[in-house]
Amino acid sequence: MANNIDLDKETLFIVSQTFKALGDPTRIRILHLLSKKECSVGEIVEHLSLGQSTVSHQLRFLKNLRLVKSRREGTSIYYSPEDDHIMDILEKTIEHSNHD
Amino acid sequence: MANNIDLDKETLFIVSQTFKALGDPTRIRILHLLSKKECSVGEIVEHLSLGQSTVSHQLRFLKNLRLVKSRREGTSIYYSPEDDHIMDILEKTIEHSNHD
DNA sequence: TGATAATATGAACATATACTCATATACGGT
DNA sequence: ACCGTATATGAGTATATGTTCATATTATCA
Question: InterPro entries given for it (chains A, B) (predicted)?
Answer without folding.
Answer: ArsR-like_HTH, HTH_ArsR_DNA-bd_dom, Metal_resp_trans_reg, WH-like_DNA-bd_sf, WH_DNA-bd_sf
